[in-house]
Amino acid sequence: MQIEKLIRATDRRKKFRFPIRRELRYKLLANRIIVDSGTGHTLNMGSGGIAFTIDHELPRNAFIELSISWPMLLDDTCPMRLIAFGRVLRSQGSKSVCTLDKYEFRTQARTFQAAGVMRNDSMLERWAGEMLKEDVKPRAATA
Q: Which CATH code for domain 11-110+121-134?
């Protein structure tokens, strides 16, 4: 019981994460251009972020899109993917953690697709552009 209290006291997370190992694909954006993509696996996820493994470190604060295979079927027949958008919080070795700023579920093709095949509809670029505009907006003066 004391070990659990110690873990809770030293844990940086503000929200609980659920251990879940799923296949993922990612795209990384820098200067409004996709500079990296690949595959990996989730380690855990919660409403505030996702921990995952890939084969290398990622730059901190980079915009990232994760496409994660979802364990449930839509109407018991159609595979789903969780599409998540966020920023890389930290990355060390093969383990990375990103925020979960926006997400949506999409249906997945029922036939096998090579891991490198990903959407190319610039959804990540549009989202990152909106986030950058929010960062530049003048802040209201506080009294």
A: 2.40.10.220
**Cα 122–Cα 30–Cα 119 angle in degrees, nearest 5:** 25
Read off the amino acid at residue 110: R
pLDDT in tens, 2-34: 555 545 555 565 678 889 999 999 999 988 889
Determine how many CB atoms are found less than 10 A away from the CB of residue 61. Answer: 11
E strands, 8-130, are 18-19, 23-30, 33-45, 49-53, 63-74, 78-92, 95-99, 102-107
Handedness of CA 129, 131, 132, 138 (dihedral sign): positive
The answer to whether 43 and 51 are in contact (CB under 8 A) is: yes
Q: How far apart are CA 88 and CA 23, in angstroms?
A: 18
Q: What are phi and psi of 4, to 5 degrees?
A: -60, -40
Distance between CA atoms of 11 and 14, rounded to whole angstroms? 8
Side chain identity at 92, as an amino acid letter? Q
Q: For 93-102, what is each residue's pLDDT tens digit?
A: 999 999 999 9
Q: Return the domain boundaries, the chain.
A: 11-110+121-134
Contact 43, 96 (CB under 8 A): no
